[in-house]
């Protein structure tokens, strides 16, 4: 196993491997790369921007200005693009949201090898229509909680083979929702997990996921 995989395994091992607020703040493949508060602040600002862009209907002059500013920002950051092995976003597993903005921030409140409970709020960015979260955004969240659960507790890495989602009632944006995941059973390399997303007493969606443990050399 490479040093990188060892580092990941170390953080994923055991009930304390995830969800701890006081653990080292980085999962990095190269010493010296850390998610500084400034980096995390940039990610938070991007999340707010995604919500604001989604909601905004600006006048033409503001649109022109905004486009110019965004293009300048892209160009500025492009100069610092790193290869995947050095990328921070998505790999900061000790930070809620893992430093990426593709899925909403999952806050874990309780964690064990077989169960996880947390909360999440979908912002305006995730709107499908009529106040409901887009149907494609909900599996992102299920994959996040189940993927973590499937790969924690010293288990060898696995990948999602299927993720079946049932949409039971609309999932509202802009309010805190509760999410719960369970590691149901293991059959050889196959790990079966389930999850539910609720708004108070209302079941919004549930999911069943199969995660298959990777064979050596499988990407
Ligand atoms: C690497 C991770 C590190 C984690 C670090 C933590 C990071 C911090 C948290 C991140 C949280 C986000 C986690 C996201 C996790 C992803 O989303 S991964 C990305 C999405 N998934 C993929 O890209 C997977 C693509 N598919 C594959 O790579 C391969 O198909 C798989 C899933 C590895 C399986 O292929 P395989 O190893 O050749 O397996 P195979 O021998 O065909 O099947 C094994 C068994 O599974 C069954 N099976 C396989 N596929 C299916 C299926 N679709 N339906 C039913 N049965 C199936 C087979 O029938 C067989 O059953 P048995 O005959 O043993 O009873």
From TrEMBL:
InterPro entries from the UniProt entry: HotDog_dom_sf, THEM4/THEM5_acyl-CoA_thioest, Thioestr_dom
Region Disordered, residue ranges: 1-33
Any one Pfam family match given in the protein's UniProt record, by short name: 4HBT
Superkingdom of the source species: Bacteria
The protein's name in its UniProt record: Acyl-coenzyme A thioesterase THEM4
Originating organism: Cryptosporangium aurantiacum
Residue ranges, compositional bias (Basic and acidic residues): 10-23
Keywords: Apoptosis, Cell membrane, Cell projection, Cytoplasm, Fatty acid metabolism, Hydrolase, Lipid metabolism, Membrane, Transit peptide
């Amino acid at each position: 196993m490479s040093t990188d995989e060892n580092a990941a395994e170390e953080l994923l091992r055991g009930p304390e491997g995830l969800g701890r607020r006081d653990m080292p703040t980085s999962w990095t493949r190269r010493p010296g790369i850390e998610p500084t508060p400034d980096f995390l602040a940039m990610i938070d600002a991007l999340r707010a921007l995604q919500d604001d862009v989604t909601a905004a209907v600006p006048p033409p002059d503001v649109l022109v200005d905004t486009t110019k500013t965004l293009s300048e920002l892209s160009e500025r950051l492009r100069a610092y693009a790193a290869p995947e092995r050095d990328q921070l976003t998505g790999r900061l597993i000790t930070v809620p949201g893992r430093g990426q903005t593709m899925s909403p921030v999952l806050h874990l409140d309780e964690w064990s090898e077989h169960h996880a409970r947390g909360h999440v709020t979908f912002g305006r960015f995730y709107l499908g229509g009529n106040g409901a979260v887009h149907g494609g955004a909900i599996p992102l969240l299920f994959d996040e909680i189940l993927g973590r659960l499937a790969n924690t507790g010293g288990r060898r890495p696995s990948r999602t083979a299927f993720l079946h989602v049932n949409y039971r009632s609309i999932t509202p944006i802009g309010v805190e929702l509760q999410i719960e995941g369970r590691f149901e059973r293991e059959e050889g390399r196959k790990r079966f997990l389930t999850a539910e997303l609720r708004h108070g007493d209302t079941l919004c969606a549930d999911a069943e996921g199969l995660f298959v443990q990777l064979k050596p050399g499988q990407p």
